[in-house]
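From the shared-data thread, chain only:
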Amino acid sequence: MLNFKNIIYALSCLSFSIVIGAAVYEHMAVVPKWSAAPPASLSMFQGEYGLDPGSFWSMIHPVTLVLLIISLALFWKTKSRQNIAAALVGYAMLLVVTATYFVPELMAIIKSEYLETVDETLKGKADLWETLSLVRLAILVILSVVLNMGLTRVNRPASDANM
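Structure, as tokens:
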């Protein structure tokens, strides 16, 4: 039976999946272009009509966090709590790493002065950023699987002896 709790949990999973989908899209369509030959390849971020992915990310992360927190509260007394808590804690930790490393490093790279030549140091930073970001994405996928597996758990109280 579909109820409010299950709808919120499903929306949490959907929001988490949107984060992953956007990250996959960026890694397949955007990152290869800007990291190809910096600083010349960074022009997509510059000028009046430059790409600003931050506006999307600054909206989806809070929505996902709020949905996960509400789901955790609603499912606190069920076995699904473990799945939601694991995804929430892992996601929160990745957001801290994102805020302290990925965003500042990306901003430093993309705000580099435009030049027609490739800066090998900048290229190395871009390649490292991309590799670490792929690791971050893999962790997000694992957390998503854990979160989604909680949807299939029977929602009996966590203290049931028949777990």
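The mean pLDDT is 92.
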